[in-house]
Automatic annotation (TrEMBL):
<dbReference type="InterPro" id="IPR014169">
    <property type="entry name" value="Pal_lipo_C"/>
</dbReference>
<keyword id="KW-0998">Cell outer membrane</keyword>
<dbReference type="InterPro" id="IPR039001">
    <property type="entry name" value="Pal"/>
</dbReference>
<dbReference type="InterPro" id="IPR036737">
    <property type="entry name" value="OmpA-like_sf"/>
</dbReference>
<keyword id="KW-0449">Lipoprotein</keyword>
<protein>
    <recommendedName>
        <fullName>Peptidoglycan-associated lipoprotein</fullName>
    </recommendedName>
</protein>
<keyword id="KW-0564">Palmitate</keyword>
<comment type="similarity">
    <text>Belongs to the Pal lipoprotein family.</text>
</comment>
<dbReference type="InterPro" id="IPR006664">
    <property type="entry name" value="OMP_bac"/>
</dbReference>
<keyword id="KW-0732">Signal</keyword>
<dbReference type="InterPro" id="IPR006665">
    <property type="entry name" value="OmpA-like"/>
</dbReference>
<dbReference type="InterPro" id="IPR050330">
    <property type="entry name" value="Bact_OuterMem_StrucFunc"/>
</dbReference>
<keyword id="KW-0131">Cell cycle</keyword>
<keyword id="KW-0472">Membrane</keyword>
<keyword id="KW-0132">Cell division</keyword>
<feature type="domain" description="OmpA-like">
    <location>
        <begin position="70"/>
        <end position="185"/>
    </location>
</feature>
<feature type="signal peptide">
    <location>
        <begin position="1"/>
        <end position="20"/>
    </location>
</feature>
Length: 185
C-alpha cells in the first residue's frame, strides 16, 4: 500500500512537470526585440523608383557624411525636423517643415522617402530605438495627412547610433533628436 502511494505521487509529479513544460510561454510572432539593430518598417506598396534628380546633390557629395548609407540621397527639398527631449510630438516648426517636405514630394511624384528617427545619447539603446521609431512614424503620419501617399514612405529608427552632433551637452543633444528624410533609389 505504501509503495502504491509513492508510485502514485511520482506519477502526479511527472505529469505536472510534463504539463508545465508543455505550457511554456512562447513569444508572439513580431514581439521580439530587435536588439541594437535598427527597426525598419517598409511600406507595403514599395515600388522601384527611377529618375530621381541628382542634379542638386550628387552621391559623391554626401558619401562619407554621418548618416549616409548606400542607396540614399539627401535632397535639398527635404529638411530634417527636431524634437524636444523624450518627445515625439510635432512642434509648430516641425509641422511647417513637414508641409514644405510634403509640397516637395507632391511636386516630385516619383521620389520615395525613408524617414529616419534619431535620438540623443540619453536612455537605453532599446528605449531610443523605440523613440526614434515613434518620431519617424509621427513624421510619416503627418505627411500622409497632408496628402503624401503612404506607399512612397518608409521609416527606420537609428536610435542614438548616428548622432548629427557628437557632443555630450544640450547643444549637441538638441540637434540629435531629429527625423531625417532620405530619397531612395
Amino acid at each position: 500500500m505504501k509503495k502504491g502511494n509513492i508510485l502514485r505521487s511520482m506519477l502526479i509529479v511527472a505529469a505536472a512537470a510534463l504539463l508545465a513544460a508543455g505550457c511554456a510561454k512562447k513569444p508572439a510572432p513580431g514581439t521580439e526585440m530587435a536588439g541594437e539593430a535598427p527597426v525598419v518598417s517598409e511600406s507595403p506598396y514599395q515600388q522601384e523608383v527611377t529618375g530621381i534628380s541628382e542634379q542638386a546633390v550628387s552621391e559623391a557629395a554626401v558619401a562619407g557624411q554621418p548618416g549616409y548609407l548606400q542607396g540614399e540621397v539627401a535632397v535639398p527639398g527635404l529638411d530634417r525636423i527636431f524634437f524636444e527631449f523624450d518627445q515625439f510630438t510635432l512642434s509648430e516648426q516641425a509641422r511647417a517643415t513637414l508641409a514644405q517636405n510634403a509640397a516637395y514630394m507632391k511636386a516630385n511624384e516619383r521620389v520615395q522617402v525613408r524617414i529616419e528617427g534619431h535620438c540623443d545619447e540619453r536612455g537605453s539603446d532599446e528605449y531610443n530605438i523605440a523613440l526614434g521609431e515613434r518620431r519617424a512614424l509621427a513624421a510619416l503620419n503627418y505627411l500622409v495627412s497632408l496628402g503624401v501617399p503612404a506607399s512612397r514612405l518608409s521609416i527606420i529608427s537609428y536610435g542614438e547610433e548616428l548622432p548629427l552632433e557628437p557632443g555630450h551637452g544640450e547643444s549637441a543633444w538638441s540637434k540629435n533628436r531629429r527625423a531625417e528624410f532620405k530619397a531612395l533609389r
